[in-house]
């Protein structure tokens, strides 16, 4: 379990939100140093550890390699003020560094939550980043190219690939290759497992191992990692006290917006099995049916009467959708699937609560602190 009474003989003064400043005399570097001086960050203690991992024997001599171990960054504020820590699991192509500060040097969500007194545990998904990928053991890797990042995340308004894309205004900078802020962000994108099924199982196992070690916690997920929310809660229902998910992978059962529109997430919003009541023998027992269909998006759900996600019934969920991201096309369908399965979901559509112009990378956009403060922290304080 966590040690709440750690002796603070040595604090790390966090420069979250101001990393990267150097002694280079150029104007941009001087500006970065000024931002660093203005934003020292929240006093905290930093440490790291690993959870999970297995030894893969190499041969008859008994030597082995370790795989599937998962890096966990532990950030402990000087004064813990909140009942439960937050476990942060980044989405596809990302590591825990993306939650430390923004690409343009502002405060990230880690610093905000530390200021509010939350203890944080930030993961790098297995086989990614500081959680080593082992050649010959782990699966095929894939990396997003720069154009995909521009089209879907940082400059969606320039490409207009879905109706709401034109509303995107909150990314700092131009959001295209050659812009310094974009370049800084794109350089942080790392190779990730191509198989969502493998990633789902490995990360679920890692998160379960972490919860077994630290005790009850709130899970915060984004995009790809959002679909891990459900199996993590399913296998540790007494330790997951709440789920906050930012535009989790969806919609149910089938891909949307970007072709090909192939079947996916056979358990609704999960690649791997979940416990339903009445029980199912296979994913086919859910008998998905079409609820509605429009251009580039088909909403599907279980056949009636819907089975319940029995282990998630008592876990509150905050499901956040940006005003302009491609999830604005279909997140209501994902929320409907969860509600029909008995899950207690609050859907925060940012545009409808007055937080305008955000896209899929809302946690690093210009108004990122507004989202953390007015939506997430507020929701948590109402419950704990």
UniProtKB/TrEMBL annotation:
Could you identify this protein by its name?
Answer: AB hydrolase-1 domain-containing protein
Q: Which UniProt keywords apply?
A: Signal
Q: Which residues form the signal peptide?
A: 1-23
Species this protein is from: Agrocybe pediades
Q: Which CDD domains match?
A: Esterase_713_like-2
